[in-house]
Design brief:
The chain is of the alpha/beta class. It has 2 domains: 11-494, ANL, N-terminal domain (Rossmann fold); 531-643, ANL, C-terminal domain (GMP Synthetase, Chain A, domain 3, 2-Layer Sandwich), CATH 3.30.300. The chain has an 8-stranded mixed beta sheet with strand order 12-11-8-6-7-14-15-23, with helices on both faces. Strands 5-4-17-16-18-19-20 form a 7-stranded mixed beta sheet, sandwiched between helices. Strands 21-22-24-25 form a 4-stranded antiparallel beta sheet, with no helix packed on it. Strand 4 and strand 5 (104-108) form a beta hairpin. Helix 5 packs across helix 6. The longest helix has 17 residues, at 109-125. The radius of gyration is 24 Å and the shape is globular. It starts with 20 loop residues before the first helix and ends with a helix. Bound molecules: adenosine-5'-monophosphate-propyl ester. Residues 261, 307-308, 383-386, 408-413, 434, 495-497, 509, 512, 518, 523 line the site of adenosine-5'-monophosphate-propyl ester (PRX).
Length: 644
């Protein structure tokens, strides 16, 4: 770490920053000592309430009963759209860039309002009521934002499913949340590849008899299968309803959305966020971390199928009345200049993207960047996985002309919004450090026994004080919520990440300490991939570990034991990878499969994953204690069998 250079607050930026270093420290202290007072102020300034709350917060982590803005009434769609109309009706709310460079569209707040009201009425016409769950499986098109906000408007709970998930993964999510309706599109292109969205839904619905209607956006001219009893065209439905749709008055505790994410066991968790706390938190973090100013053009490249898309494509920007750019395509189509051409085309001022995308674009060569102008940019963001210092420097120097601060933001699906990040214009930048806790966030680093560790020591990252953006529960499974986050270290929220805090108070995130992988920034559980591999009838056992990957950050390496009498061969490997694609989606496909006649197990039958990680990473210098293995000779055979 010692040879990493620090960067001063970027010079062009200091003139504009909303927050100075002194103000950060003052506001941070206030937020920690008097959280209710602090969050009450933010919620008053940034959110419009139909009825004020009686108390800002109650409860604690020990009892898992934290509650924010008690008895406060509001509506998220009203906050994101309606209340901006008197002053910003003609301000652009959404800019859309399609998969092809010539496809683009813009919607003002007034135009978006009308579309949302109409679609809210479509949902009502289909019988959707307050509290019902609505699944959204759409590409990055304006209708995705319309559908999310329409749900919020009428008090329905959306469950957005990432377009890369397979029919099986969709089915599991639809069943778990008991959805009665799905919003999808005919199909879409990502680069050159076609994604058969409606077909995937049709297959999933073979096992979801409770889904009574599917609303389909006609996104391409391709012909799709149609079920007259169940399917409705979006464009026909929105023209069959009125444009008037009042907002439902929601309690601050009412659910806003469910979003599935991977944990350390096989089944994805339906993380549930509620109305008042979530909106206050994303609005506040958006304003301060992205140093939002009135005429900014904000581009978060994340898909709305992930939490980053929820919080910083939709709710955070629109609640602040900002212009948010939505991009349907991929960074290297039709060529690796695409991101920067989009920046120039729309004069993007703030870009928020993932280290995977930055690494992939760096790999293509600087000329794809330097051929573009990018002078409009004033702030760069990173999210989803650690950003290596050399990649950070490339982002800072080549993309940002050395005048844009980088906000390396650490957070999680469960946290609702950004938790640790540099404050642009206020913090000295340390490449690779997530840096400072956001207002109201009090992290600590603890050892395995729960003791707090001093500066510079690596340990488990926990959060010691409630904040408004924290998820309320896991849908239909409060016990799992408690066991996953609050049980092991009472009084703390356990993040699942390792980190250290340096002597200057900067947090450095070191990666997950549970069985969760980060592949291209996507969160995937090893158990989920193992279950998918085990679905292949030839397989008797499987163990999945991460290996370092130059572009993806981590890639999936699977050790697979076949059933007696089955001979390993290349087509079997393909079949197993196909199983994972079918069960989860292409994002979880292993990069490597190594045949193993046995897996290293302790006498109590536990697979020693630590050893498998080392073998997969070819890091054989110190294998540690292997004396508890039932059969230590397994190790030598696995090392010999390692391919690559
Ligand atoms: O391991 C951390 C990593 O992503 C995990 C959360 O994943 P997910 O719920 O999918 O949310 C991703 C987008 C917020 C964390 O536990 N992570 C996220 N941001 C960073 C990060 N690791 C290092 N640095 C980050 N900036």
């Amino acid at each position: 770490m010692s040879n990493i250079k620090n960067y001063p607050i970027a010079p062009k930026f200091t003139q504009q920053a909303n927050i100075s270093e002194l103000q950060y420290h003052q506001m941070y202290t206030h937020s920690i000592i008097e959280p209710d007072n602090f969050w009450g102020q933010q919620a008053n300034q940034l959110i419009s309430w139909f009825k004020p709350w009686e108390k800002v917060s109650t409860g604690d982590f020990t009892h898992m009963d934290t509650t924010w803005f008690i008895n406060g009434k509001l509506n998220v769609c009203y906050n994101c759209i309606d209340r901006h109309l008197p002053t910003r009706a003609n301000h652009v709310a959404l800019l859309w860039e399609g998969n092809e460079p010539q496809q683009s569209l813009q919607l003002t707040y007034a135009e978006l309002f009308e579309k949302i009201c109409r679609f809210s009425n479509v949902l009502k016409k289909q019988g959707v009521q307050k509290g019902d769950r609505v699944a959204i499986y759409l590409p990055m098109i304006p209708e995705a934002v319309v559908a999310m906000l329409a749900c919020a408007r009428i008090g329905a709970v959306h469950s957005v499913i990432f377009g890369g998930f397979s029919s099986d993964a969709i089915k599991n999510r639809l069943l778990d949340a008991d959805c009665k309706i799905v919003i999808t599109a005919s199909d879409c292109y990502r680069g050159n590849k076609i994604i058969p969205l409606k077909h995937n839904i049709d297959t999933a619905l073979l096992e979801c008899p409770d889904v009574k209607s599917v609303i389909v956006v006609k996104h391409t001219e391709n012909v799709i299968e149609w079920n007259d009893h169940r399917d409705y065209w979006y464009h026909e439905e929105i023209n069959s309803v009125s444009v008037d749709c009042p907002c439902e008055e929601m309690d601050a505790q009412d659910p806003l959305f469910i979003l599935y994410t991977s944990g350390s066991t096989g089944k994805p968790k339906g993380i549930l966020h509620v109305t008042g706390g979530y909106l206050t938190y994303v609005a506040t973090t958006f304003k301060y971390i992205f140093d939002y100013h009135d005429n900014d053009i904000f581009w978060c490249t994340a898909d709305v199928g992930w939490i980053t898309g929820h919080s910083y494509v939709v709710y955070g920007p629109l609640c602040n009345g900002a212009t948010s750019l939505l991009f349907e395509g991929i960074p290297n189509y039709p060529n690796p200049s695409r991101y920067w051409e989009i920046v120039d085309k729309y004069k993007v001022t703030i870009i928020y993207t993932s280290p995977t995308a930055i690494r992939a674009l760096r790999h293509e060569g600087d000329h794809w960047v330097t051929d573009t102008n990018r002078k409009s940019l004033r702030l760069l963001g990173s999210v989803g996985e650690p950003i290596n210092p050399d990649v950070w420097e490339w982002y800072y120097t080549v993309i940002g002309h050395e005048h844009c601060p980088i906000v390396d933001t650490w957070w999680q699906t469960e946290t609702g919004g950004i938790m640790i990040s540099p404050f642009p214009g206020a913090a000295i930048l340390k490449p690779g450090a997530a840096s400072w806790p956001f207002f109201g966030i009090k992290p600590a680093i603890i050892d395995d026994h729960g003791n707090k560790l001093p500066a510079d020591q690596k340990g488990k990252l926990v959060i010691t004080q409630p904040w408004p953006g924290m998820a309320k529960t896991i849908y239909n499974n409060p016990d799992r919520f408690f066991n996953a986050y609050f049980k092991d270290y009472p009084g703390y929220y356990l993040t699942g990440d390792d980190a250290r805090c340096d002597a200057d108070g900067y947090y450095w995130i070191l990666g997950r300490n549970d069985d969760v992988l980060k592949v291209s920034g996507h969160r995937i559980s090893t158990a989920e991939v193992e279950n998918a591999i085990l679905a292949d009838l030839s397989v008797s056992e499987a163990a999945v570990v991460p290996i370092q990957h130059e572009i993806k950050g981590e890639a999936i390496y699977a050790f697979v034991t076949l059933k007696m009498g089955i001979k390993p061969n290349e087509s079997l490997k393909k079949e197993i990878i196909q199983k994972v694609r079918e069960n989860i989606g292409a994002i979880a496909a292993p990069d490597h499969i190594q045949w193993a006649d046995a897996l290293p197990k302790t006498r109590s039958g536990k697979i020693m994953r630590r050893l498998l990680r080392k073998i997969a990473d070819n890091d054989l210098t110190d294998l540690g204690d292997t004396t508890t293995l039932t059969d230590p000779s397994v190790i030598d055979r696995l090392i010999r069998g390692r391919q690559m």
